[in-house]
Amino acid sequence: xxxxxxxxxxxSGTKTLLVSATGKILAEAHASYRSYHPRPLWSEQDPEDxxxxxxxxxxxxxxKSGIHAADxxxxxxxxxxxxxVFLDKNDKVLCRALLWNDQRTAAECEEIEQRAGGRRKLIQxxxxxxxxxxxxxxxxxxxxxRPRLFDRTRKILLPKDDxxxxxxxxxxxxxxxxxxxxxxxxxxxxxxxxxxxxLDLDRELLGDCYESEDVTGTLTAAAARRLGxxxxxIVVGGAGDCAAGAIGTGVVRSGVLSSSIGTSGVMFVHSDxxxxxxxxxxxxxxxxxxxxxxxxxxxxxxxxxxxxxVDHLCExxxxxxxDPYKILNREAGxxxxxxxxxxxxxxxxGERTPHADPDARGSLVxxxxxxxxxxxxxxxxxxxxxAMRDSLAIIESMGVPVRQVRASGGGAxxxxxxxxxxxxxxxxxxxxxxxxxxxYGVALLAAxxxxxxxxxxxxxxxxxxxxxxxAVDRAQKRRxxxxxxxxxxxxxxxxxxxxxxxxxxx
Length: 506
Hints:
By secondary structure, the chain is α/β, with parallel strands linked by helices. It has 18 helices and 24 strands. Strands 1, 2, 3, 5, 13, 14 and 15 form a seven-stranded mixed sheet that branches. The chain has a seven-stranded mixed sheet with strand order 18-19-17-16-22-23-24, with helices on both faces. The protein has a two-stranded antiparallel ribbon with strand order 4-7. A hairpin with a 6-residue loop joins strand 18 (283-286) and strand 19. Helix 13 packs across helix 14 (373-397). It is globular. It starts with a strand and ends with a helix.
């Protein structure tokens, strides 16, 4: 038989799937690792942890499945976007990787726009404005603040691509993940020579760009031994986690939007042609579908906001032995839509879409003595969903059709949160026969890379099916429609205060 590995190097851990040629999941495994926050709004991880998690989970799924090593024909890689791994001439990691939710680079974003000739010119070159989470500002931050480390840097890789280096010895990336570095000419699907020149960055710092299903190398003998596989196993380009998640939910045609609530929240829509928001509120990136693009709005803290609430304010629930998320979900379900006047701004790590504001802060507004833990839980869920509606509103204002929302991530596992999405978005929300997201998507890309399928659209049609639908509750929709403008106004009211808080704290 033929089997394919999908490896997703996420923020909280690495997830690996082993998938058959028919799309059946043969085995899965997960390994967690920690993040480091040495200063407020800084976020880092050790790339060595990603590699250890990859080895552990690959060996585990092969063992669980009972298949022969030679049956694993290909590997697809997905990973958290925008992170930066700095390597010296001997491939030694020079420092912990700066992650997508790291907010230290506001000054470098201004520098990039100035060097590019202004925000509008930058968007013309790379389809997106400079945002603190992107990779290019991190590169300039290292050059500006750790010049000795920068002088020793010979390669800069994204998280999944550092794992690829350890697997194949190749420095490579795919166009979907590379789009989030702010160094790719998204229209041409290759590095932007003009912007690299203006930033005084050498093209040799970057890996080669591939389409997501293209073969980028095969396992080295050393990697094959570590993983328990063979050197005949190929590694395809793969995709950034957002594009990979869209592949894993079948968002490969016009009119279908993916709503993913994981650590972050992502609204992702397929586009047959390149569309750019001239104000730069949405990202326009290359899709993992060859020759196609996507637009994407990102809320930096989505499921992560609920996780924060559980970890720091509901410790007693975890200690009680039950699932704290199920308990909170039940409590929130007893609260009416709108949380009886309680609103939550989910900007715990700054915000990307639509505000592009690293100084934004999380806020509970409207608290009274009447409000309970259930109210707070529901307000958090509603606030996250409102923030994602911000992205949907921009997508639709650009004339991009959205007829169906495919829910994925942790938020899709909650019937309450699925209904909330249907009512806030005003769209039918569906789920599909797999909940594995990015890891499943890149396993399908791996299968395409071996010729098992003619292209990724064919692979998705053969393996991904809708299994549930959540219709809009019109009464609930009217409630949310009346509250959404208030949610939007709160950011404008508090923006100046957020800036002042940031100045005081720094």
